Amino acid sequence: MSALLEVSGVSKSFDGFKAIDNLSFSVAEPELRAIIGPNGAGKTTFMDLVTGKTRPDTGSIRYGELSRDLTKLSEAQIARAGIGRKFQKPTVFEDQTVFENLSMALASPRSPWTVLTRRPSMEVRAGEVAERVGLTAHLARRAGVLSHGQKQWLEIGMLLAQEPRLLLVDEPAAGMTSAERERTTEMLVEAAKEHAVVVIEHDMEFVRRLNCRVTVLHEGRALAEGSLDHVCADPRVIDVYLGRPETEGETADA
Amino acid sequence: MTDVSVSPSSGRKYSGEREGLAPRSRPLIQRPDVLIFLAILALVTICATVLAQMGYVSTSTVKLLGKTLCLCLAALAMDLVWGYTGILSLGHFAFFGIGGYAIGMWLMWDRTELIVLETLAQNPLPPTPLEIEEAIGAQIFGVVGSTEIPWLWAFAGSLPVQLAAAVLVPGLIALVFGWLAFRSRVAGVYLSILTQAGTLALSLWLFQNDSGLRGNNGLSGLQNLPGLDDVPQSTISLWFLWASALALGGAYLLASWTVSGRFGSVLRGIRDDEARVRFLGYEVEHYKLAIFTGTAMATGIAGALYYPQAGIVNPAEIAPIASIYLAVWVAIGGRGRLYGAVIGAAFVSLLSSWFTGGGAPDIDLGFYEIKWTDWWLVLLGLTFVLVTLFAPKGLGGLVDLWTHRRSTRVDDLGPDQGSLRAEEDRP
Q1: Sorted alphabetically, which InterPro entries does this protein's record hold (chain B) (predicted)?
Q2: Which residue ranges make up each domain of chain A?
Q3: Does residue B283 belong to the interface with chain A, where contact is any CB pair within 8 Å?
């Protein structure tokens, strides 16, 4: 197990506020990892940094066998390198059908000329993904008319369709029923058998079910790392996170 | 429908799935909107030709029709760039004008050359190339007080070069402009302002006498094709009508192909959420640049076909307001659907000719007389505001009403399909 993603000494501040403060973090392939932390701990900023949405002030983010420096790549290049992201709020293309959403996500050449001129049939592959996320019956429907849970599934489907090596999943279980949570857990555990999966989650019950290594983020730093029981026993963790009343239903991270 | 079918093997196989996917894999030529559009275009062109030859339709009407088709082509390009990709370019009409100037230069040069040669042939000595050039220069640039031939006109005598310029100059300008703008992620209203400013700059430059393009006189006499003085305008107008119709038909096919499949999905994705498209691994800037440049070239072709029918091209044509009209047409016709752009351009520009040409009767209110030549713009502006507020789908939305009514009337839909359809219609 060698590290697929190696974040070292990364800092990022917004108008003087240190969202990420000298953070180091690494994840191997295959591995399932959960990141927990209170509101404003920098969880979403961390994802933004890895996917190229924001650039770190200092530090390096290296990825893959070649240790490519992600801070020098564009969002699209990072995505093509094999990093897929699922957003906290389902962001699917509501105006397009489930099939169209999936066909855009399916791993395939991305340059305009190739996409325009070479048009392989994607129905079989899109159908397979749709079946994995239980949307076979809805392939021809506009994503905008799907229920919240179905949109979550569609976005997970789009993530799987990209065939990424590193999956960054932001609160996958938000707004799901318990049966759906169970299925999401299964899917993430399954994906983590071959790839690296990083799950950002608020719901401790869900994290417990993932049964994986946990990193606790606090004020932009990794406060503790280890099994869930281990970090839960850490007095610092109890102090900043677990000891406080649960802040469920977080809507926007820093 | 709030509950998700969690199990992937939830046997209910929605038979509409195949039906829903079918249009995408169907050949372009079999798609109903393409077929209907091409049929109507062919019908209009053929009818106009027959009626013109029987003498029922005047040459100026044929020209109006031909020009309208060119405007439709420009609107089609605008719809691709704005309606599908979400780039509100307020400068596409500049490409239209550049296309017109490029072809106009050849038309003027070649025709002047023929006239000059004819005149000089009466001299006892055969004219030298320098004499010919000077005579042409005096003829063309006399109005701006110059006889020198500007460098821009170096290849004006060559039809292939000027034809290529009508396409490549707009393409090149769009490429450079787009590369600079998209690379710095200029988007939204800032991009619109930038395109508008660029258009204004181009128009102001053209207004200058030393621009080399005859200042505010523009290029004129473009309706006369060199060497074809004995062909009547009634025939030439039909040629251009057919050329315009072919260009529009071809462009419609090309545009339909472009917006179908994954490429079209990516374009619409960029319009709705470009950050998300980036995270899927698509270089949004490359797509924007491709569509911006491609549509600029198409608009250049439209201009090259339009101005020989109009007879004159001058800097006022490129004024920023013209590009705004283009956006208004597309908005009224319905963004994001190709036929919407064509309907909007045809409807509004024909209506505009009717109102401003004195076709509409003035309304006497007793205390005030509404002269449509003055009030048409107010009416158009009001319509634009109302359409944007209350009918964002534009005239094209009417087609939806019709197709929906038709699709619910079809009986062979199973109850399952019918119910799903009803669900889709609700929100």
Answers
A1: ABC_transp_permease (IPR001851), ABC_transptr_urea_perm_UrtC (IPR017778), LivM-like (IPR043428)
A2: 3-92+164-242
A3: yes
Report if residue B424 sits inside a domain: no
* Unique residue bearing structure tokens 């024909």: B350
**pLDDT, tens digit (0-9, with 9 covering 90-100), for A172-187:** 887 788 888 888 888 8
Domain presence at residue B255? yes
Span B269-279, average pLDDT? 94
Q: Indicate which of A51, A95, A177 best probes the interface with B, i.e. most B CBs within 10 Å of its own CB.
A: A95
Superfamily the domain A3-92+164-242 falls into: P-loop containing nucleotide triphosphate hydrolases (3.40.50.300)
Residue B100 sits at the chain A interface (C-beta within 8 Å):
no
Instruction: Assign A206 a pLDDT band (cuts: 50, 70, 90).
Output: confident
pLDDT tens track for B329-373:
999 999 989 999 999 999 998 998 888 887 778 888 888 888 888
Q: With a threshold of 0.90, does the pTM exceed it?
A: no
CB-CB under 8 Å, B20 with A99 = yes
CA of A141, closest CA in chain B: separation in Å? 8
Residue B90 lies in a domain: yes
Q: Which residues in chain A are contacts of B276 at CB distance < 8 A?
A: 87, 91, 93
Report the alpha-carbon distance of residue A27 to residue B313 in Å, rounded: 64
Q: What percent of chain A has pLDDT over 90?
A: 47
Within-domain flag for B105: yes
Using the beta-carbon criterion (under 8 Å), do B6 and A112 form an inter-chain contact?
no
Chain A residues touching residue B420 (CB < 8 angstroms): 141
Q: Round the average pLDDT of chain B to a whole number and report it.
A: 85
Strand partners, B347: none
